[in-house]
């Protein structure tokens, strides 16, 4: 098998040396679609070699093992924490040791919030300690906590209808889980909406597709001119229970204590490594995931998996002795969870070269068995991506969906650069998302192998095509 692989590589190098136009303007496509189709079909053997190495060969389980080594040792990696900076330094060193090129750190100022000690005790109608997780950027409570009657609502509309009842209370949101995108607004805006009607604090049903009594944290946003109130998530079970109790007209009283503190911004870094392009080193295919996480579990799934299959994509390509015409740039973002802080800084710094970006890719929705690629770009670019994905027929993963956006690549996509995200079992992803359950146990090394193979084939082929993706 090894011999076979190196034969493929030899053929590819000869082909890439002998074909293509020497120099052309990135933005003026010269090939017909049929020619591009034929060009992509020429990568069939390379795609097989990548798949064989990642899924059946000696690179099996490497991304899982590298990730386990990091997160078992360092743990979760909250923006502003020592853990995150330790993880960045260790990963930086490992990327260098693994022989990738232009490995460097790009400084970023990131938010620093700590949850401190926190608790929620139901004191009426019975004494009962609830599991909670304060939401990122929430203020704390006074040391004795906030003790108040609870108003349970199922929606923002209900809160508006019952606004007069909310004053001086703790608002509990028991919104149903529809989808993450739909339901997350309760986590992000719940405190602001509750404060507007005079509530003292808000407790939000975790935005999760499934629960075995797990609170799921995440970011929330205050609004200028609206009183800041403490806010935390509670479990689906407790939200439903309080909703049932309240429906009988029974009074609920809760004591909420949160030691959360917002500190000044601290120093962090985006971590960058490359395989430099052989013919157009200034042109970029960006492959990414975020290295930061919440401060619970191990941040293994979100987004250790995405970050480490992105690294693995470059490793697989390097192991096969492949060097694409364009530069493959790995970026491991910092402070994604605080609203794409590292990615925003990267965009400001690098947007001057935006015409050189062929494709931006991010894996931040799990590294389970991929169902395909989500893609945003022109119809022409989509047709090309469909051809590229057809190279993954041996894995039976060929679909190209819509909505390639991701928190860290959106700046580029909004400015017209084609963008792609890896799609897998999102329902399963939101079992674990932002909870203590986000550990290595939630991941499957074999599925990560497949995800890495998809990621490597797509990034390599797009980086090696004669022309950049059309916009
Ligand atoms: Zn994430």
UniProtKB/TrEMBL annotation:
Molecular function, one GO term: protein homodimerization activity
Family annotation (SUPFAM superfamilies): Zn-dependent exopeptidases (SSF53187)
Keywords: Carboxypeptidase, Endoplasmic reticulum, Glycoprotein, Golgi apparatus, Hydrolase, Lysosome, Metal-binding, Metalloprotease, Protease, Secreted, Signal, Zinc, Zymogen
Boundaries of every Peptidase M28 domain copy: 270-456
Keyword Nucleus appears in the UniProt entry: no
Domain of life: Eukaryota
This protein's record includes keyword Repressor: no
Signal sequence extent: 1-20
Record-level GO cellular component terms: endoplasmic reticulum; extracellular space; Golgi apparatus; lysosome
Pfam families assigned to the protein according to its UniProt record, in alphabetical order: Peptidase_M28
Membrane-spanning residues: none
Summary of the function given for this chain in its UniProt record: Carboxypeptidase that may play an important role in the hydrolysis of circulating peptides. Catalyzes the hydrolysis of dipeptides with unsubstituted terminals into amino acids. May play a role in the liberation of thyroxine hormone from its thyroglobulin (Tg) precursor.
Family designation: Belongs to the peptidase M28 family.
Self-association state and partner proteins as the record states: Homodimer. The monomeric form is inactive while the homodimer is active.
Protein name according to UniProt: Carboxypeptidase Q
